[in-house]
Structures
1.
Amino acid sequence: MPGQKKLPLIPTSVVGSHGLPGWLYSSLDRVDHGEFGPTDERELYDDAVKLAIMDQERAGIDLITDGEMRRWKFVQSFYSRMTGLTSQEPLRKLGPEGYDSVPRYVATEKIKVPDGLGIVDEFEYAKSQATHNLKATCPGPVTMSIHIRERPSAYKNRLELANEFVGPINAELKALEAAGATHIQIDEPSHSIIGGTVKDYVDLFNRTVEGVKARVGLHICFGNLASRPRFERGYANIFPDIMDVTADELVLEFANREMRDIEVCEQITEAKDVMIGVVDVKSFYTEKPEEVASKIRTVLKNSPAERVGIVPDCGFFTVPRWLTVRKLESLVGGAKIIRKELTG
Ligand SMILES: [Zn+2]
């Protein structure tokens, strides 16, 4: 049963998405052309989830996800579950994919999520397949607002827009808990996008997870669309205020930034756990287990091992599946080296 095994020292996990199998891309084109019936579509996604779980479990990841196989470009698939939105053509259709080339939405009226976000159904299926501990992932209110234009809008600014998602996400988290989720990770971007202070960001997060008793993680993301970040990639300026989030752990990316700001882990582990990104999802380079181990050692100089775990920097959506598996194996290899050093 997921969530029932005790995690080992230096647990390994993922941030969320798994590398998509090639056949899923070609099948999704056919889905778009109306060639799949509802049963075909369900089988398609179920099979993709089975593979994502198999890859993670075989690699030896302790706390897995369903690979977010049913989501498209992280949040795009959630917008079809909302009312009040009108879609707009991408601003740019030529050239390399970027943040300006995905569909955008305008909130012509107040947004509602009448039937929930669908994450509970994702979790229920994954639970029926997983043998390792399972983590549910959910975009936070800022992430959820990210492809909705600030102007024109039924909201006066992005903070107010993001605030609209607090209720629906909180309801989804509680439903996840009722479905047996013991580990939940909320994914949010840098606070700078909402234009407010870190305190505003913390307040929004805390209201989103209010009353949730499952273990809560917060992944603070610099963006990963087409393997490109979107924000200034530093964590130092959000401390110490970010420590006021009611999360049990912070899930942060370090590998792609050559471990910049790694010293914040010392502050974090005084009160929370930290999952450190030790594998770069924006690079084709496959880290060696010893390189992963060396990054963990840097953190262990100033933090107790009981508070430290490891993850890839972000989701693997933009990484080929074969490379995703290699990177997962290196992650696990690095953790094993350190566990041996710590326990003899
Ligand atoms: Zn991320």
2.
Amino acid sequence: MSIVKIENLSFSYDKQQVLENINLSVEDRDFLAIIGPNGGGKSTLLKLILGINKIQRGDIKIFDNTPSKNLSSIGYVPQNTNINTNFPIKVIDVVMMGHVSHNLNQDLPWWKKIFKIGYSPNELGCAMGSLAKVGMEKFANKKIGSLSGGQRQRVMIARALCANPKILLLDEPTSSIDVDGQKQIYELLKLLNKTITVIVVSHDISVILKYASKVAHINKVLTFHNVDFNTNIKNDNEHFCEVEMLQMLGNKTCEYKGCLC
Ligand SMILES: Nc1ncnc2c1ncn2[C@@H]1O[C@H](COP(=O)(O)OP(=O)(O)OP(=O)(O)O)[C@@H](O)[C@H]1O
Ligand SMILES: [Mg+2]
């Protein structure tokens, strides 16, 4: 069973059509990279999967259900998670924002539950566990503004992991992070991908080639390819533009029935 199944999906903002007849399946433990030009509709697609944007035409099923019924199974790292670095909030507080389970605070006294004061040991344990998964547990009590861009992005991933998701959606998680930082984040995603399905929007083509098991190109319509690691990976330092990558992938047989190439 596909864990995400998108069929004949079209979407418009007012009269501007942004997505047209998208068909896409994501299987368990896929590492799907979504690439495409600015304004191509990538973030819009993620927001439809999340149920933030309402489906107008076509269908999306997550674990055979509507997106809104599956909120707790999806972790989301949005695009441009710029944080006001002067805002006095600690790393642990940022991660706690990712909680969607209401059962974790059962061990708090009633007045703390009602007024939502403090965190229960269960909640804290869960948040610290998420921080440990991204190697940031030592930073729990640091101010978020004192972290580097790459460290902050790890915290945002920890926040998404806090709800114990089965699918992780990341919208350009490494924009404005240097090459080493990008590599670290993708290594982390590779590790998480052993148990979680990863869908990442990215412009880092050379990195994507190394980590993704599948690539989808979206520019209003969708072109979808399976990437073969062994034949497609080139030198680590080599950078591709999207056109070159599409040309390269275009030589391969597309395995998706809805492919337009
Ligand atoms: N909330 C909105 N209201 C109206 N139009 C929108 C809205 N969000 C996005 N758009 C428009 O929809 C189109 C697709 O935007 P989207 O953010 O999905 O693109 P994208 O592929 O994620 O681009 P980028 O690579 O720049 O992040 C763009 O033309 C954008 O201006
Ligand atoms: Mg976007």
3.
Amino acid sequence: MIKSMLSGFVRLHILHHASLESIYGVEIIEELKRHGYRVGPGTVYPVLHQMEEDGFLIAEKVNVEGRIRIYYQITEKGRQVLSESKKWLRELVEEVLEEDS
Ligand SMILES: [Zn+2]
């Protein structure tokens, strides 16, 4: 249960950051850690890959000092999903957190 909830948050997070700038795996893992998510490459890489397959992200291989790094950018479809999700998220936050206070 917690795992499947978390994966939604992780996806949304990835979409959000990819909408701001190109991201790569290690960077997103660090960012998620900063937010208190304990996720590693075994979680994040398959998610990035799946999101690429779903057409939400587009991958680009970049040579960084002799090593290939895969950068992900949000696609138009990804942007649509993100803005739709924000609508749901806003409503959810209002309802769930409202009842808390
Ligand atoms: Zn973040």
4.
Amino acid sequence: MSKVRYLEPLPEPIDVAEFRKVVHSRRSVRNFTNKPIPAETLNDCLNMAMLAPNSSNLQQWEFYLVQSADKKAKLVEACLSQNAAKSAAELIVIVARTKSWREHARLVLEQWPQAQVPKLVKQYYAQLAPFYYWQGPLNSWGMVKKALTTVSGFVRPVPRGPFSQADMKVWAAKSVALAAENLMLALRAHGFDSCPMEGFDEVRVNKILKLPKDAFVVMVIGAGERTPDGVYYPQLRFDQQKFIHRV
Ligand SMILES: Cc1cc2nc3c(=O)[nH]c(=O)nc-3n(C[C@H](O)[C@H](O)[C@H](O)COP(=O)(O)O)c2cc1C
């Protein structure tokens, strides 16, 4: 038996029918009423977004609430003037960072929620995280890691990345997309709706938000109350059989 590290209180039973209602009623909404999302509701949704699982708990996300009229107009244009952006009560730009991990590794150790930081945790954030996530100048360390991994991979299972800035983008985007989904489901649970958008001009959005160099936009979410004609088509998903492989 493994050593008990911590006992999380058991979760309360959950009404699956209510959860199903949230998941099933979430649709990409392209037309919103002008009802605002109350600040505390939006805040609650953002808190739930930030509870998404994320790689190494390094919390690679940032959420830009674009609320000034001037920036909002520019962002709508950068979103190719899509209706989902034009009519949205809120525009939230979901951003991933590939270089915030070092600061966040330090914060994990500083803000650890127990009196003592366990030795394994200390080792992970002080040594292993930099080993995995630092790629070195001109990707030099990434290339060394790749070579070392290829050799040791012949004899034992090893993580095959991230070894480059491109890998780091995929690494960050995975976690950040999960936060985006949490955000959209939380909005739905509060009676609001959303539309995720990747139809935007990335260069223009970066400029509007003055994003740091290691930041990139994963998606822009338009949010608000749906109009009766806000969902354009019935929902379509292919048959489970096509996607589920039991091996
Ligand atoms: C990463 C991503 C990017 C998307 N980009 C857009 C977009 O730019 N404009 C849009 O109207 N819908 C966009 N969508 C919404 C999809 O078209 C939609 O999720 C899909 O058609 C399924 O419909 P449903 O969300 O109502 O189930 C995007 C969805 C995702 C996940």
